[in-house]
Design brief:
By secondary structure, this protein is an all-alpha fold. Helices cover 76% and strands 0% of the residues.
Length: 41
Protein backbone atom coordinates (compact mmCIF):
# COMPACT_ATOMS: atom_id res chain seq x y z
CA UNK A 1 0.00 0.00 0.00
CA UNK A 2 1.35 3.42 -0.92
CA UNK A 3 2.05 6.05 1.68
CA UNK A 4 -0.74 8.24 0.32
CA UNK A 5 -3.21 5.38 0.79
CA UNK A 6 -2.05 4.83 4.36
CA UNK A 7 -2.32 8.52 5.24
CA UNK A 8 -5.81 8.71 3.70
CA UNK A 9 -6.91 5.69 5.72
CA UNK A 10 -5.50 7.24 8.91
CA UNK A 11 -7.22 10.57 8.21
CA UNK A 12 -10.53 8.78 7.64
CA UNK A 13 -10.17 7.00 10.99
CA UNK A 14 -9.23 10.21 12.83
CA UNK A 15 -12.15 12.18 11.41
CA UNK A 16 -14.55 10.12 13.48
CA UNK A 17 -12.46 10.50 16.65
CA UNK A 18 -13.99 13.08 18.97
CA UNK A 19 -10.63 13.99 20.53
CA UNK A 20 -9.01 15.39 17.37
CA UNK A 21 -10.04 18.72 15.90
CA UNK A 22 -8.73 20.08 12.61
CA UNK A 23 -6.12 19.20 10.04
CA UNK A 24 -3.23 20.46 12.17
CA UNK A 25 -3.88 17.75 14.73
CA UNK A 26 -4.34 15.13 12.00
CA UNK A 27 -0.93 15.96 10.56
CA UNK A 28 0.73 15.92 13.97
CA UNK A 29 -0.76 12.56 14.92
CA UNK A 30 -0.08 10.95 11.52
CA UNK A 31 3.53 12.13 11.60
CA UNK A 32 4.01 10.70 15.07
CA UNK A 33 2.47 7.33 14.10
CA UNK A 34 4.61 7.08 10.95
CA UNK A 35 7.73 7.93 12.96
CA UNK A 36 6.97 5.23 15.52
CA UNK A 37 6.29 2.71 12.74
CA UNK A 38 9.61 3.52 11.03
CA UNK A 39 11.41 3.40 14.37
CA UNK A 40 9.92 -0.04 15.04
CA UNK A 41 11.40 -1.40 11.80
Amino acid sequence: MAVSGVTKALKDIMRVDAGINGDAQYIEQITWMLFLKAFDY
